[in-house]
Amino acid sequence: MRRVRRTLTALAAVLGVTAVVGAGWLYVKPPELLRVGDGYAAKIVCSNVFLAGRDPDVVLSKDVQAPGNPLLRLVRIDVDRGEKRVTARIMGLFAANHAIYRDRLGCTTVPDGNFEAARLAVPGEPVAAVSRDNAIQVAADGVGNARDERIATLLARNDLTGKNMRAAIVVHDGQIIAEAYGKGFGPTTPLIGWSMTKTVNAAILGRVMMEGKIKLDDAVLLPQWRNDRRAQIKLSDLLGMESGLAFNEDYGTVADVTRMLYLDPDQTALPASLPMLTDPGKSFNYSSGTAVLISRIWMNRIGDEQTALSYPERALFGPLGMSSAVLEVDARGTFVGSSYLYATARDWARFGQFLLQDGVWNGQRLLPEGFVGMMRTPTLASNGAYTRLQAWLRPPGNSTGGDAVLPADTFWLEGHDGQSMAIVPSANLVVVRMGLTPSWLKYRPQALVRDVLAALPSGDRQP
Asked: I need a labelling partner for 143 at 20 to 30 A (CA). Which of 7, 52, 235, 309 fits?
């Protein structure tokens, strides 16, 4: 028995030393996967607390931990409202990562912990909100007499709007005819679009094109590409995801996309450094890195950094009356045009109506002729799934949503965790659906769009 006790004591000592050494290793040099998890948690909590006004503990449990990744269930957060910072740590101890709020530029991950550099990257005063006095075509303060009870009944069906729906809006003939919200959400709650942001970023680029500062066939797009093979990449190649650049969009590990978003203070650094695998136009590679590069390219063409940082407000959000829209920047001042636009569901619908109207708002053309048409034009390399301007022809997911057969002119904005917008020009229709619905739940919005179309007066829809 004495020998057993000695053995157990020795084993306990070994385990104790191992635990101390392991904890020290996690503290000093944590695995990148843990830092990615903490960076994601800090960023999501920061944006939802300081932009959307939500409770941080609810955001951590519902938005960060509930979707199912077991690693994220170990994350603990610290919210400093005075400094407008969020820090996340595994078990409250390890792999610290940070996010900071910078007023009208929203939140950004600060993976190097250099908050001073993050502040200095945004020169001058915070970007001011523009005047919202202009007339608008999509109702901003309720649906009024435009409400359609048939459509409202459809939005009340969970089988059509999906699990964890946070907002669903139907716009027909320029009016909101029905809208529905999940518990805790409403018309004033800003919601992340994830990759729907790519299409908005493309529209901002279109505004730069209208000013004559950039063209689709421009090449030598970044200084670091000037003297190598990447100098041949045209802006149109980046927009169609046909640049030939290597980029790994796998979110299940520490891939290019997660490293860019949660480990790099300068999110352009990694995608701008990647080699070309094929000649431009030869292959399709969906890449959030490409979208961030597009942001930096149009910002460079504007020139002055403060002017560039205020540009989305001045050139797009202001004219459209998207008063809630905040396009967030990285820690070094580049708009994260791949992922991080927050706006209310009504403002997302407003943007959809703008595209439905071919880039014209209140009688003023804001996008070049044919620009929205390119959003509906398939690329050859994507086998017709993706378009020439950061939008989709393929419906969300790998199926058509049951037996949903939609008009041939339907095109889509699509984002992570079930964000979608269907634009149907032939029916003068926009259907927005926002939520927290991971892909493994297999929700598809096509059935919702199909049933909305079927409920419209027969003269307002075409098969």
From this structure: 52
